[in-house]
């Protein structure tokens, strides 16, 4: 059953990512910077940090929500495509900002929300 719940959670995460991405693209259609992917990955890092801090390592919710929902919600593949595109188009400043905000921001948010999860739960 855990595989089924994980798959359902992954579908929900993917649908939410699509909804957020479409909403941001509508309001920032002129922007050439991947704001939606940054937001999605930062939210995913924070959420996974909170979850990981709140539950034990063997808890089924870590698999269902962590692997399923956050695995479907966040997107390393799109991050890679956006990064490679900026590199090929020689948008070095944008690429550096994208890499820094995504990687350092995700690590910081995960760590901060992990601590919050440990203290709250």
TrEMBL record:
One of its GO terms (molecular function) is fluoride channel activity. Belongs to the fluoride channel Fluc/FEX (TC 1.A.43) family. The keyword Flavoprotein does not apply. Its main location: membrane. One of its GO terms (biological process) is cellular detoxification of fluoride. HAMAP family: FluC. It comes from Bacillus zhangzhouensis. It is found in: Cell membrane. Keywords: Cell membrane, Ion channel, Ion transport, Membrane, Metal-binding, Sodium, Transmembrane, Transmembrane helix, Transport. The chain crosses the membrane at residues 33-55, 61-83, 95-116. InterPro entries: FluC (IPR003691). It holds the Pfam family CRCB. Na(+) is not transported, but it plays an essential structural role and its presence is essential for fluoride channel function. It catalyses: fluoride(in) = fluoride(out). It is a multi-pass membrane protein. One of its GO terms (cellular component) is plasma membrane. Fluoride-specific ion channel. Important for reducing fluoride concentration in the cell, thus reducing its toxicity. This is Fluoride-specific ion channel FluC. Na(+) binds at residues 71, 74.
């Amino acid at each position: 059953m855990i595989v089924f719940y994980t798959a359902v959670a992954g579908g929900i995460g993917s649908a939410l990512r699509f909804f957020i991405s479409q909403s941001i693209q509508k309001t920032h259609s002129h922007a050439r910077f991947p704001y939606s992917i940054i937001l999605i990955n930062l939210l995913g890092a924070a959420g996974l940090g909170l979850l990981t801090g709140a539950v034990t390592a063997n808890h089924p919710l870590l698999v269902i929500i962590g692997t399923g929902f956050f695995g479907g919600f966040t997107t390393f593949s799109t991050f890679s495509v956006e990064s490679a595109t900026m590199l090929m188009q020689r948008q070095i400043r944008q690429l550096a900002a994208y890499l820094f905000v995504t990687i350092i921001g995700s690590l910081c948010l995960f760590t901060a929300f992990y601590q919050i999860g440990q203290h709250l739960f």
